[in-house]
Design goal:
The chain has 497 residues and is an alpha+beta fold. It has 3 domains: 3-85 and 275-375, Sandwich (Immunoglobulin-like); 92-272, Rossmann fold (3-Layer(aba) Sandwich), CATH 3.40.50; 380-455 and 472-495. It has 12 helices and 20 strands. The strands form 4 sheets. The protein has a 6-stranded antiparallel sheet with strand order 1-13-16-5-3-2, with helices on one face. A hairpin with a 2-residue loop joins strand 2 and strand 3. The protein is globular and about 75 Å long. The chain starts with a strand and ends with a helix.
């Protein structure tokens, strides 16, 4: 169903630069444009704007101009990036959730414990740590504890005391950790995060995707992202990726337990470099503009006094970290001239200045009937469109592969390679875009190589008049192919980030 929005009047959180500001309706300037020939010829490019604050915002449309009486299709792209800052983030409120089900026995649980101890050792005095383990039930191993020199040994001993249990109840671990985070005695500015480590599909508690997504959404709305880490090939990558995506967190896959400490370290480094939190983008559409699709990111629709608005949460941003949003739009093309498309506003809490901020700008394009409308997408927008298509292809190939449709999965990947190759050729003059497309090509080519049709194994069966016959059955997928499924899922999340 298409999303139609008019204009809105709403007040976001008070900000340092525009405290208490209220959105004003976007004017319908098409009639003015039709009366003013300067707008149609030589008008300034209002199809993009940028703001360089603690959060750098780059917002742009796919086209600066579109054809009159055409289909009106374009895109809205926004990039949010944390400023490169040296200051440390405020105190952390971190929950580590460790799967201790039976399949974690041996090196996996040992490495998980070592990784948990390692991240606790790197946390600063004044940070708060919580540790929860789970199998068929969840247990609080370390209640919310503000780290000091005196209690670090106790935290260490608690983590090292984790022992193998039974089956897997991921929801038990999530909900118990969430309750502990809510109870944690943390005041003022702080960064909240949950890190979930599991190697198995959930089979107790909440097991359906919708229910697990709902848990992750509640965490996101409370300002807590979930980082998920899947170990080895025996885990449900779709569930783990959904938890991360729904909460604005990251998803990782490590082929062996030996990779766990590096992932924990990477996440910790990102946390202590946080520069903004509670980042949220609001898109207010111009008259007659419709949203066709919001790609990859979770979003919600809200109603203000003046109409409906599109809100996309981004959560926490670390220094030099970039998150993006892509929205497909349909713009009215019945009249020529400057046409308002959207007002884009980003609100966030600045962890460096310790204040709330909001930045905003308007995006417009020109509807023209003289044949000069922009034919190609803006290069950065085109790159982001390709990223979304590549992520979708990797996810589709995974589904086909897991259904045993190996040839179909390979064909899907082959088609994406051909499309990316064409796009890379067109973008060769733009080094940034070309480098990203080459990276996508590498990811798809690796998947294609490991998803080659699996050889069949012949098994004799009872024959008819012509004697015994054989029944060709597919051989089990090699481990390299199963690893590729998990790699594809991580890369799909990364491409959509």
């Amino acid at each position: 169903m298409k999303l139609r929005t008019a204009v809105l009047a709403a007040t976001l959180a008070a900000t340092s630069s525009v405290a208490g500001a209220v959105f004003a309706p976007i004017p319908d300037s098409r009639e003015d444009a039709a009366r003013d020939p300067r707008v149609a010829a030589g008008a300034p490019d209002r199809s993009r704007f940028a703001v360089d604050q603690t959060v750098k915002l780059d917002a742009r449309l796919g086209h600066a101009s579109i054809a009159k009486d055409g289909n009106g299709e374009t895109y809205l792209f926004a990039s949010l990036a944390g400023i490169d800052a040296q200051e440390s983030a405020p105190p952390l409120d971190l929950a580590i959730v460790i799967d201790k089900s039976g399949s974690m026995k041996g090196e996996r649980i040992a490495r998980a414990i070592d990784a948990g101890v390692g991240i606790a050792e790197r946390m600063r005095d004044g940070d708060t740590i919580t540790v929860v383990d789970f199998d068929t039930m969840a247990e609080v191993v370390v209640p919310p504890t503000k780290l000091t020199a005196r209690n670090r040994a106790t935290v260490d001993a608690g983590i090292r005391g984790i022992r193998i249990g039974g089956d897997t109840c991921i929801s038990c671990g999530l909900e118990t950790a969430a309750a502990q985070l809510r109870a944690a005695p943390v005041f003022g500015d702080h960064v909240t995060r949950m890190i979930v480590l599991s190697d198995g599909a959930t089979n107790h508690g909440v097991t359906d995707m919708g229910g697990l997504r709902a848990i992750a959404a509640r965490m996101r709305d409370r300002g807590c992202s979930i980082t998920t880490i899947g170990v080895d090939v025996d885990f449900d990558e779709k569930v783990m990726a959904a938890l991360a995506t729904e909460s604005n967190g990251r998803h990782y896959f490590v082929a062996s337990a030996a990779g766990l400490p590096a992932i924990f370290s990477q996440e910790f480094d990102s946390l202590v470099a946080s520069v903004a939190q509670d980042a949220e983008m609001t898109v207010e559409l111009g008259p007659g503009v419709e949203v066709e699709q919001v790609f990859d990111r979770t979003f919600r629709r809200e109603h203000g006094d003046a109409g409906e608005r599109l809100v996309i949460p981004f959560g926490v941003l670390a220094a030099k970290q970039e998150k993006t949003a892509l929205v497909k739009l349909r713009v009215p093309t019945d009249r020529e001239g400057q046409t308002p498309v959207a007002r884009v506003s980003v609100a966030y809490h600045d962890l460096l200045a310790r204040t709330d901020r909001r930045e905003q700008g308007d995006l417009q394009l020109v509807v023209t009937g003289d044949g000069t409308a922009q034919a190609e997408l803006d290069p950065l927008v085109a790159e982001r469109v390709e990223r979304s298509r590549t992520a979708e292809t990797l996810t589709t190939a995974n589904k086909l592969f897991e259904e045993g449709k190996f040839s179909e999965a390979t064909r899907e990947l082959t088609g994406r390679i051909a499309s990316l190759t064409t796009s890379a050729h067109r973008a060769r003059s733009d080094t940034r875009v070309a480098a990203d497309l080459d990276k996508q090509l590498g990811a798809v080519a690796e998947a294609q190589a490991n998803f080659a049709p699996v050889a069949t194994a012949s098994a004799p069966v009872a024959g008819g008049a012509f004697g015994p016959t054989t029944n060709a059955a597919p051989a089990p997928p090699p481990r390299s192919a199963l690893e590729q499924v998990r790699k594809n899922q991580q890369k799909a999340v990364d491409l959509s980030f």
